[in-house]
Specification:
The protein is mainly α and about 475 residues long. It is built from 20 helices and 2 strands. The protein has helices at about 5-10, 20-35, 45-50, 55-80, 85-105, 110-120, 125-135, 140-165, 175-195, 210-230, 235-260, 265-270, 270-300, 315-320, 320-340, 345-365, 370-395, 400-430, 445-465, 475-480; strands at about 430-435, 440. The protein has a two-stranded antiparallel ribbon with strand order 1-2.
């Protein structure tokens, strides 16, 4: 639908119902996000199921992590060039194909390949946000964007109990048959409900050199972060990967700066509002991943340790479900706060709540109800923060670059979660004790993890406060805080 037709349809009220478009895109984002995290409850069982080692199984998580981080900005840029709806459908096809590979897979290489293909679909969320901006009336963009953005956190929070319930007493392949069906439903829904937004006015082509360079940087960096604990942080392999990432980054930065149509516009990305938002995204991502990674372990540790709570895997995952629910409920609240007070205030408020939640976790870590309550506070803060970020990004970039800019912001969240997994994993696997013949993390290790997440949250508050203070900046470009025009 060309831009003039979109505008006329908006004025005449003949565009698809805003709620239907939002629901279709949000379901696609939720399915994609859940698929990335649903593997976690399976990880302890996969060495036996796939006849492999725990280090081999770790690649089922690492492959999706690396593929998602690499593909995010690339998918966003492809959307800006070739059409956002078309590229969104491609990502959902990738999710369907990856899920099928895992559903049929009985060997580690096949499952790793399937997880990598699934990871490429994570770009659906930033592309979906950009579609909402172009299709919906200005008065609906803020709320819809908030809901879509929150799917990153909501999907991760709901995937754990959902997957645990689904595989309880059934074959693990059922999980990926379910995602095959869900991805197909999402694909059909988007194709049926979401029209094509206005085509990009940019004459840009794909920056192949920039894409290759970024892929090399992210693969080297994330591989070092993911495997540093197993290989040794000072081992030649890890040090070599960090040095390689730094060297390619230096070349890539110069390449992107000189390109007329770069994959990542460093001039736009270095603008204060975009840069500070992305730094905050890394910190919030770090604090968010710690919730699923550490709290679930603490809930499952034997009560005989005097700090573990002795819950089953299923029960522990269900205890984290309320955090996903409040995360979803807080996203429309985030849009209203942003419209009234500005996205900077909303983002800062979210970071304050995340910090408060981690402080409560430290105080109440010996009670199940205390950890559930703290996780809900953290979930509320994450929902507010994640929903405000794309609004801040879209007010600071040209409309022809919204998909790639949102993809970069999602990449920053991924860097936060991946670095969180590496750092916190190192703490929980090195500070251990033996309980009835089993090696378990010490109570001090959990204290350190919670303090690390709290520190990241406090730093996020500081960076959020560095954002420009004008709440009306760019409001008309995204519809944030702009009332509907009178008919």
């Amino acid at each position: 639908m060309p831009v003039t037709r979109v505008r006329r349809a908006r004025a005449a009220g003949t565009t698809p119902t805003a709620g239907l478009v939002t629901a279709a895109l949000a379901f696609a984002g939720l399915t994609t996000s859940m698929a990335q995290t649903a593997m976690v409850p399976l990880v302890p069982q996969l060495p036996r199921l796939l006849n492999t080692s725990p280090s081999g199984v770790a690649w089922t998580v690492t492959a999706a992590l690396i593929a998602g981080a690499v593909s995010n900005p690339i998918v966003g840029r492809l959307g800006d060039i070739y059409g956002k709806r078309r590229v969104l459908l491609w990502t959902l096809m990738a999710l369907f194909a990856g899920s099928l590979l895992c559903a049929f897979g009985d060997t580690l290489p096949v499952v790793i390949a399937g997880r990598a293909v699934q990871g490429c679909a994570l770009g659906a969320i930033p592309v979906g946000i950009s579609i909402l901006r172009e299709l919906l009336p200005a008065s609906r963009v803020a709320t819809a964007t908030a809901v879509m953005s929150s799917m990153v956190g909501v999907g991760g929070a709901l995937a754990l109990p959902g997957a645990a319930l689904l595989i309880h007493g059934a074959s693990w392949h059922v999980l990926y048959w379910a995602f095959s069906v869900l991805s197909l439903v999402a694909l059909v829904g988007v194709r049926a409900v979401v029209p094509s937004p206005s085509p990009s006015r940019s004459a840009a082509t794909m920056d192949t050199g920039g894409a290759v360079g970024l892929a090399l940087i992210l693969v080297a960096l994330l591989l070092a972060l993911s495997e540093g604990g197993a290989w040794g942080w000072t081992s030649p392999r890890v040090c070599g990967l960090f040095l390689a990432a730094a060297a390619v980054l230096a070349w890539w930065g110069r390449w992107e700066w000189l390109r007329p149509h770069p994959l990542v516009d460093l001039r736009v990305s270095s603008a204060r509002q975009v840069l500070v938002t992305n730094v905050t995204a890394v910190l919030v991502g770090f604090a968010t991943y710690a919730l699923a990674y550490s709290v679930s372990q603490l809930l499952q540790l034997p009560s005989g340790t005097h700090y573990g709570l002795g819950l089953s895997t299923l029960t522990a995952c269900l205890c984290l479900a309320p955090s996903g629910i409040v995360m979803l409920l807080s996203s429309p609240v985030s849009a209203r706060l942003s419209a009234r007070f500005g996205a900077r205030i909303t983002l800062t408020t979210g970071c304050v709540l995340v910090a408060l939640g981690w402080a409560l976790s430290l105080l109440l870590m010996h009670t199940t109800w205390g950890l559930v309550a703290a996780s809900c506070v953290i979930g509320t803060g994450v929902g507010l923060a994640y929903a405000a970020m794309p609004l801040l990004v879209m007010t600071a970039v040209p409309s022809s670059q919204t998909a790639s800019a949102n993809g970069l912001n999602t990449l920053m969240r991924s860097l936060g979660t991946s670095s969180s997994g590496a750092v916190l994993g190192m703490i929980l696997t090195t500070r251990v004790t033996v309980f009835h013949g089993a090696t378990v993390p010490t109570e001090g290790a959990f204290h350190t993890v919670f303090l690390s997440a709290l520190a990241a949250s406090l730093l996020a508050i500081v960076t959020a406060l560095l954002l420009p203070s004008s709440r009306r900046t760019g409001a008309k470009r995204t519809g944030v805080g702009v009332p509907a025009e009178p008919s």
